[in-house]
Design brief:
11 helices, globular, alpha/beta, binds acetoacetyl-coenzyme A
């Protein structure tokens, strides 16, 4: 199956990164947001990253312009009509995704694949919410999308072999390393990462060490690029809480249960870097 034109639903943190790497790989890429304000914000994020790439000598100004030339921002679903693949990276809500898929299916051809960047929802449920379940799968990227090499390809129960193969090939074409992940809560990476992050919070609650010392321990002792609390702040405490709850629902195992401190920090609005405060205070940093 030849994928030439790609659509990305959502130009937030993940969607903008996905649209950027798709355009950088030479695919004509349409990125859709619900309104102009969100679209401009997302496009500005892409432009900033590319400008940083030029500054760092990672790409030339011509290369940046070529990428931006392959990228079309839109707020109209009708503009997605030529897409061979639509990657959805919108809010983690089944009903919202269902509505978005219906709007995509109303304009794209019968051959068009739909991939969800969900980090926690059941991909089989998402596939079943469309009129083309055999052409739906999960394509889970990691933050920051342009820098993280991995993509998890998640096969839903109805996903066809052809769809699965096409998404593996597409992942490689955009410079990522795909792995086959099962349609189970947390797939592979979050299945291991989330209990580790939750455990770090439990250790903190038990007084095992300070935020700084636990972070330093895992960073310098294990060679992790970020300690667990820096990573929690980076991913977002609300996002981690949301994923943990879904995984706890799925497996009913205590290691996925969000610790009380995480819940209270989310309720207090301490969401991490994006809110200015999480385990670290970014106003001070
Ligand atoms: N354009 C091109 N290249 C850029 C760039 C830009 N704008 N900005 C940075 N880079 C390059 C740098 O030049 C550097 O390249 P080299 O290694 O060749 O020198 C590389 O990217 C790393 O950048 P920095 O040196 O500026 O930053 P860093 O070394 O501090 O790394 C990081 C930043 C990649 C984010 C690193 O800290 C890291 O890997 N953190 C862990 C992130 C992580 O775990 N993400 C997964 C979260 S979980 C998730 O996403 C899934 C979920 O469902 C919740």
């Amino acid at each position: 199956m030849a994928i030439k034109t790609v659509g990305v639903l959502g130009c937030g943190l993940m969607g903008s990164g996905i649209a950027q790497i798709s355009a950088a790989a030479g695919f004509k890429t349409y990125v859709l947001e619900v309104n102009e304000t969100f679209l401009q914000k997302g496009m500005a994020r892409i432009e900033k990253f590319l400008a940083g790439g030029v500054e760092k000598g990672k790409m030339t100004a011509e290369e940046r312009d070529r990428i931006l030339g392959q990228l079309i921002g839109t707020t109209r679903y009708a503009d997605l009509k030529a897409c061979d693949l639509v990657i959805e990276a919108i809010i983690e809500n089944v009903e919202e995704k269902r509505k978005a898929y219906a709007q995509v299916e109303a304009v794209v051809g019968a051959h068009c694949l739909i991939a969800s960047n969900t980090s926690s929802l059941c991909v089989t449920e998402l596939a079943a919410a469309t009129g083309r379940p055999d052409k739906v799968a999960g394509l889970h990227f990691f933050n920051p999308v342009p820098l993280m090499k991995l993509v998890e390809v998640i096969r839903a129960l109805p996903t066809s072999q052809e769809t699965y193969d096409a998404l593996f090939a597409f992942s490689r074409a955009i410079g990522k390393e795909p792995i086959a992940a099962p349609d189970r809560g947390g797939f592979i990476v979050n299945r291991l990462l989330v209990p580790y992050l939750l455990d770090a919070i439990r250790c903190l609650e038990e007084g095992l060490g300070t935020v700084e010392d636990i972070d330093q321990g895992m960073k310098l002792g294990c060679g992790y690029p970020m300690g667990p609390f820096t990573l929690l702040d980076f991913v977002g405490l609300d996002t981690t809480y949301y994923i943990a709850n879904i995984m706890f629902e799925e497996f009913r195992e205590t290691r996925f249960a969000p610790p009380p401190l995480l819940k209270r920090m989310v309720l207090a609005g301490y969401l991490g870097k994006k809110s200015g405060k999480g385990f670290y205070d970014y106003a001070k940093k």
